[in-house]
What does this fold into?
Amino acid sequence: MPTRRIFFNQLALDARIGILEHELRATQPLHIDAEFDVDITQEVNDQNIQSVLDYRLLRNAIVDECTHAHVNLLETLSERVVQRILNEFPLVQFVKIRISKPLAFSDCSAVGIELQRSR
It folds into this structure.
C-alpha cells in the first residue's frame, strides 16, 4: 500500500523529565523530531481535511504525552509516545521519534533518544 510521510522538526516544549534532583523540581525544554508513514487510503480532497491524517492530531498527541506527567527517563517517554501514536492512529504504519534535551550538557547541542517502530 502506498504511504505518505508526515514529519515534525524540532517541536519545542517544556516537560517534567529526569531523575536528577534539579530535574525533579522544574521543567526543562525538549526538542522532538518525528516521522510517520501513513497509509494512503483515498485520494486527497483539497476541500476536505478528512481525506488525510490531520497532522494537528499527531502533534497534540505528542505534546500531551510529553507534558501530562513527570517521566524519569527519555527511553520511557519515547516508548510511551510511540505506543500512543500506534494505538490512536491506525493509518500510521511506521513511527520514528527522536526526543532530545538541548540543555543537558554544555559541550553539545543536545542529547537524546531515537526510537522507531513499524506495524
Remarks:
- The chain has one domain: 3-118.
- Strands lie at 3-15, 28-39, 92-101, 111-118.
- The first helix runs from residue 21 to 25.
- The two ends are 13 Å apart (CA to CA).
